[in-house]
Design goal:
The structure holds two protein chains of two kinds.
Chain A lengths: L5 H39 L5 H5 L2 E2 L4 E2 L2 H32 L4 H15 L2 H15 L6 H25 L3 H9 L4 H30 L2 H4 L21 H10 L7 H30 L4
Antiparallel strand pairs in A: 1-2
Helix pairs in contact in A: 1-11, 3-6, 3-8, 3-10, 4-6, 5-6, 6-8, 7-8, 8-11, 10-11
Chain B lengths: L8 H49 L3 H6 L3 E2 L7 E2 L2 H32 L2 H15 L3 H20 L7 H25 L3 H9 L4 H30 L2 H6 L17 H8 L8 H33 L1
Antiparallel strand pairs in B: 1-2
Helix pairs in contact in B: 1-11, 3-6, 3-8, 4-6, 5-6, 6-8, 7-8, 8-11, 10-11
The chains are: A mainly alpha, B mainly alpha.
Chain lengths: 289, 307
Amino acid sequence: MFEASDLNERNRRVERLWRLLFLVMTVLLIVPVVVILSVLIHKGGPVLSIDFLFTEPVQGMTAGGIFPALVGTVWLVTVALLASVPIGVAAALYLSEYAPDNWLTRAINLAIINLAGVPSIVHALFGVGAFVLFFRFGTSILAASLTLAIMTLPVVIVATRESLQAVPQAFREACWNMGATRWQTIRRVVLPNSISGILTGVILEVSRTAGETAPIMFTGAAFFLPFLPQSVYDQTMAMSLHLFVISTQVPGVPEALPFGVALVLISMVLAMNAISIAFRMHLRSKKKW
Amino acid sequence: MPQASPRGGDAIDRRNLDWYIDKGVQVLVFIGGVSGILFVISIFVFITKEGLGFLTEQFSIGEFFGSPRWAPTSSHNPTYGALALIAGTASVTGLAMVIAVPFSLGAAIFIGEFATGKPREYLKVLVELLAAIPSVVWGFIGLSIMNPLIIKLFNVPVGLNVLNSGFILGLMAAPIMTTIAEDALKAVPDTYREAAEALGATRWQVILRVVIPAAKPGLLAAVLLGVGRGFGETMAVLMASGHSINLPTSVFDSVRALTATIAAELGETAVGSDHYRALFTLGIFLFVVTFVINLTADLVVRGIRRK
């Protein structure tokens, strides 16, 4: 009755062929990256040690560790988060809980897409024009972090908005019916049900911020500083810029050293991302609704 | 309605307080919401403010877009032709797209339509992780791994060229395009697929005749955003393209990109000098082009959604 006709047979063969082609494309997309990562690990691995992480660069950055750069990146990321998380969460709350469907909301969404799409070097120019010169912060952690904060704002906004919108509308309606105000509903119902989703967004932003180079080049990151920053008005070294500097600007760096720095940087970033993804999957699996 | 009772003052006060808090929060989150717009506008205002002197005094459209001579540090006759820089950016981005577009669309179709269950989840996570690798690490890879590889494979003197940076940029842009394209495929309602399957279409026929046509605007937007990303990429292109001012004639020519020029030269200029202002003018150009690309991508998606 249901014997495969020649046509069916042909169709099935065509489908298998396409499926294979797309599988190969997917694999080819991933393989070079895996190869590259293993080269990084192979060449950079031997450099890594506790000493490497916790000592200063010496001999014109051709030897020693990366401690000031690590500390600097922590400073930059922390200050950037302090600025962007409150603004980002507020923006997401507005878009998810308050915004009517009008031209202003569309303009805000477009602005967010654009903030994410503007080249990082243009953010750097903005940081120089606005924070370094106009607000007179000078080249400092403050100026660099604010530049990073504005650049990575879309990451927080998009992740937060998504997790807010995942809270069922019925939860809100139930709360409103009890006579709660909008804010009471948000604070007691919406935020507690989405806080972990917001956290994954924040972790993702940490990873983005830690890897950025161009926006901090002229706003607060220094090539080499022998001491750790004491306040947000100091300049600082940073992991990402340090990698750029020792691989392009400093003569006589042993070949393995920049591989070690690259490995530490990429491990930091990927670990943060992996945590964020694992967290998100865990949340999804135990979702109650 | 407030209860009218002699001791009701408390209740009324609390209600008022809650009401004020509610309004206060509403104002705060509104400020947060419009801050995105404010930031985009202030980016434009501040880079224009710094670059304006150049635009009104030295700038000539003919020279900027027509001359390949970018020599702002020349002491007797500084020239500001951005043609070679534009060609550098265009060649690198073009090659990156030639590599990345087919592969990322193919990967998106495989992940979104063919793969199922666990493998699909793993692939999605992997693509997301690939998108997270910082651009300075990509630049370093171009410099230290691709460079000797290209010299050896093609027997050319320099491995920092269009091929190197285009390949690196393609690898960078592909995961992002894959993710956006896969979202676009996912946005096609399942009822479309079911209707086609009910008519006896094979899965491939469903994809080719139903899913891809329905997702076309989203796929186009994915490509556009990939182009925008390549156009604006800074560190990877700075480190892997060779950084010499050239109108490229082959993929083995070294080039210099717009973004890389700013990154390399801004540190050496005096605030307010012609050179400094010229770099900000390049920034204005970059801002405008990426703005147009993003706006177009948004309109493409929105236009079809409305229909």
